[in-house]
């Protein structure tokens, strides 16, 4: 579906949207002023005024075209104003994850040579003040929220956002001509943003994405997915991540959709019922949690409730696969008895979800499809702006990430000899193609310019033919790309067998007892796992069976609990090859979180961190089993 305005740069996207909706009551964004308040909508006219005011302030205080300006903030309206104002004057957005410690913030600010730093809450302002003196290019910190600590306000380098906007509003008439000149000067090849990698294997690297990179991806995505002026997106994935930035922000704006901001990741369930979105961008973890909540409720219900649920799911599966007639009538009954309740929990208006950031377990995708809640799964990297492939509505292939985007080329490179097993262009698509497995390579206008001030890392990522090496392993199945795992995640056991843990771990994500699972077994005689239990399910079990405990650590050591997990491991391992089966495990008494370092901001497990942190448990497994 075409975009609602024409544009070749992000600057033009904003200007043409502002012009299109000028004088109308069209909603651009919505936010909640407080927890108990209703959503407050913001029109395009209000957005235009705010962006102009901030752009005037930036120009007045010396921000030139190409200058880097950093932001450390959760998703909120001010984030969009910041970004649009920067794109208007040719600045470069440097976005930081709010979970980053002060030391990593300092490195990114130093490396990018950021001149200003916008922060959200008092917690983030504390980090900014801590590192300010070590960042030679930084001359101002702008805080969105008034901090509780009065001394922060006495810092001469700190300015409140409200003051900035008031000053910018007054300055705009005098800066209007210069801002207009800047907007005309922005070219597609100009740098739009630096998005830094998480840095789990070294210092963070800044992926340089140009206006052309991102715009090409927006337009290609619109050819695959329908986004219209009637749509409303609930935004909660970090905007500093390229998936939410392109798909949940720019692509939504380009379709004329409204963007509603969730209060936080923790309030998404509540905000869905308040915002009534039609589209939601998410990572698989949200779908896994919803699935486990539903199945747990069914398991704890009566035998009749279980039979109704199983019947409804069977009907939903048949309907999703194309059966009609009697099945269509049965589906209406299944919706009334089972699935309508689930749809109500998502706000009642969902057209589709978009899943990215990690592989979606096929079983969970099929469950949502049976319920009539479509999940369009996509695949990409920060370095590819980010989308490489995606499924399309009505043609979802669970277990794959769909077809290559228009304008993009994907190659499969054999791991053993680096030869090319398959090469597919988004324009000329072999729909029946099956290929060997290998590393996924990507070429196209969406591929980054390189890493900021890091030519060596750029050469390691992009070869002489312009192919970006993703580090992911996959293959084509009936013309759709299927992701196997990351090359660096591959486990080689003591017998020399190569094992990709991702698909195996996905098998266990449908268990109501398992919150997270990480396979281990490098150079070992057999596979094992570290398991984070679903503590809510365990608490319910302990209460029902009168099991006394004083802590989760004590609870997971109980023989009754250990028995549950032995049965789960045995049951889910039946489908696996002998060398892939999990033979032993250890339970962990706390969840993996972003704050404690085991998860990335998009909720993917940092395997090396987990293995280092819980190395004593891994050693305990193999000391028992290999001695």
From TrEMBL:
Q: Which residues form the AMP-dependent synthetase/ligase domain?
A: 31-452
What domain of life? Bacteria
Cited InterPro entries = AMP-binding_CS, AMP-dep_synth/lig_dom, ANL_N_sf
Which Gene Ontology cellular component terms are annotated?
membrane
Q: Name one GO molecular function term.
A: ATP binding
Name the keywords, alphabetized: ATP-binding, Nucleotide-binding
Give the protein's recorded name.
Answer: Long-chain acyl-CoA synthetase
Q: What is the lineage of its organism?
A: Bacteria, Pseudomonadati, Balneolota, Balneolia, Balneolales
């Amino acid at each position: 579906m075409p975009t609602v305005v024409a544009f070749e740069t992000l600057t033009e996207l904003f200007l043409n949207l502002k012009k299109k909706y000028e004088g109308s009551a069209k909603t651009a964004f919505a936010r909640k002023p407080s927890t108990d308040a209703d959503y407050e909508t913001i029109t395009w006219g209000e957005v235009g005024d705010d962006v102009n005011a901030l752009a005037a302030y930036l120009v007045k205080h010396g921000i030139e075209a190409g200058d880097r300006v950093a932001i450390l903030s959760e998703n909120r309206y001010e984030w969009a104003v910041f970004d649009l104002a920067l794109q208007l004057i040719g600045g470069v957005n440097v976005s930081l994850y709010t979970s980053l410690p002060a030391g990593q913030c300092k490195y990114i600010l130093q490396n990018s040579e950021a001149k200003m730093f916008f922060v959200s809450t008092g917690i983030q302002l504390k980090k900014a003040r801590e590192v300010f003196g070590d960042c030679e290019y930084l001359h101002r910190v702008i805080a969105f929220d008034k901090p509780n600590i009065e001394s922060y306000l006495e810092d001469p380098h700190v300015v409140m956002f409200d003051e900035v906007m008031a000053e910018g509003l007054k300055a705009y008439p005098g800066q209007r001509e210069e801002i207009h000149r800047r907007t005309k000067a922005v070219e597609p090849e100009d740098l739009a943003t630096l998005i830094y990698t998480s840095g789990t294997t070294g210092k963070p690297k800044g992926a340089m994405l140009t206006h052309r990179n991102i715009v090409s991806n927006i337009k290609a995505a619109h050819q695959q997915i329908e986004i219209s002026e009637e749509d409303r997106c609930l935004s909660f994935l970090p905007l500093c991540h390229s998936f939410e930035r392109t798909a949940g922000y720019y692509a939504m704006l380009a379709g004329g959709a409204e963007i509603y901001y969730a209060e936080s990741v923790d309030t998404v369930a509540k905000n869905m019922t308040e915002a009534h979105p039609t589209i939601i961008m998410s990572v698989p973890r949200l779908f896994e949690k919803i699935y486990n909540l539903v199945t747990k409720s069914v398991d704890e219900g009566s035998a009749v409730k279980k039979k109704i649920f199983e019947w409804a799911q069977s009907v939903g599966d048949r309907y999703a696969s194309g059966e009609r007639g009697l099945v269509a009538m049965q589906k209406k009954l299944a919706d009334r008895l089972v699935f309508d309740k689930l749809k109500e929990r998502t706000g009642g208006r969902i057209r589709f979800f978009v899943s990215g950031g990690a592989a979606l377990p096929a079983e969970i995708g099929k469950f949502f499809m049976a319920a009539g809640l479509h999940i369009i799964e996509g695949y990409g990297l920060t370095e590819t702006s980010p989308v490489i492939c995606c499924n399309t509505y009505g043609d979802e292939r669970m277990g794959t990430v769909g077809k290559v985007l228009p304008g993009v080329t994907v190659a499969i490179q054999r791991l053993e000899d680096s030869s090319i097993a398959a090469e597919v262009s988004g324009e000329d698509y072999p729909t029946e193609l099956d290929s060997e497995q290998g590393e996924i390579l990507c070429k196209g206008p969406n591929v980054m310019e390189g890493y900021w001030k890091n030519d060596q890392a750029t050469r390691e990522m992009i070869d002489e033919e312009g192919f970006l090496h993703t580090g992911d392993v996959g293959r084509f199945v009936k013309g759709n790309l299927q992701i196997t795992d990351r090359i660096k995640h591959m486990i080689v056991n003591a017998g020399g067998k190569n094992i990709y843990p991702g698909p195996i771990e996905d098998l266990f994500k449908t268990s109501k007892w398992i919150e997270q699972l990480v396979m281990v077994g490098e150079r070992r005689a057999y596979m094992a796992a570290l398991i984070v239990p679903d503590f809510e399910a365990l608490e319910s079990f302990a209460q029902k069976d009168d099991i006394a405990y004083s802590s989760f650590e004590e609870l997971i050591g109980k023989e009754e609990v250990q028995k549950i997990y032995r049965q789960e491991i045995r049951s889910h391992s039946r489908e696996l090859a002998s060398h892939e089966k999990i033979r032993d495990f250890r339970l962990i008494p706390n969840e993996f979180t972003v704050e404690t370092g085991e998860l990335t901001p998009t909720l993917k497990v940092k395997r090396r961190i987990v293995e280092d942190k819980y190395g004593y448990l891994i050693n305990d497994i193999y000391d028992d089993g290999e001695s």
